[in-house]
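Format notes (please read before filing issues)

Several people have asked whether sequences and structure tokens are stored in separate files. They are not. Every record keeps both together, in the order shown below: the sequence lines, then the token lines. Line labels are part of the format and must not be stripped during preprocessing.
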Amino acid sequence: MENELIKRNPNYPVENERSSTLPNLFLRSALFGISRKGKMVENKLLIAQGGHKIYYTGFELNQSDLDIWIILKKKCLLSEMQPALLKATDILNELGLSDGSSDKKWLKKKINRIADAKITLSFNDDRDGLKLELLVKLAWHNNTFRVELDDNLSKLFNDYTYIDILTRRKLKKDLTKWMYSYLRTNQKVFPTHIETYQKMCGSVSCLKIFKQNFLRTLRDLKEQHHIDDFRINKTLIEIKKSKKLKNTFDGNKIWAIIRGYNTRFALPDEVLASLTPKELDWLSEHGGRARIGMMPEREVKKILKIKS
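Then the structure lines:
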């Protein structure tokens, strides 16, 4: 059952073991940036795509903090009790790290930084706003954490993206992780100034160094087939996304899955990995009933636009 599509909390999108849903606003800004040594800031303005403003107070967070928060968020949403209980050893194992005393000390420091984060969001020229925290409760005893999410976080999930956790963890550099996640949020990537990417990811390097690192990142993503190609047009970066990153919907593929896995058992890991966010959403909403015959075949084909 470990790869089953689960929606325990009705205020959030479906979760599964391989993928996690994250607000696009988090992935299109420097909220989780690429700074290795985050300093303490107060009410710092973070630039985000779409003109949204994020005012942040706390230690600057990076991609390793996001890796940890993804685990905390998922466990909270799937837990039957709140606050959720998480063992340090389990979190470190999911991160692919050892569970020695120094690792547990590092993890506790990281989780405390995440819990200290205070966020104010501004929308529509400051006509709308929202204050939230990444964690509203945190306690620990003998390397077991008790954590709870801020209820306000659910309001950001009207605009979200599925992130393949296993794929993301294979990416070693923070800028590569940030760019991979950013690309997942955009159906089409419009030509963008390299300075804009620098601001959105929170880089403090000089532009010349950032440009070298950014182009190296794009080459790595291309080699790993996360993008098809990229081109530099003066100060603009043009990126052509890989098909596997596009949020398409293939009714024929869904129909084949329904016919091939017409049981109550969870879908195999490789099947889940092949699905786009739209396809995952459809299967989470209708797939269970369709696979065990609770939806008439004619109705399913009509929804999927399958010709008889």
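For reference, the curators noted about this record: The longest strand covers residues 40-47. Residues 251-304 form one domain.
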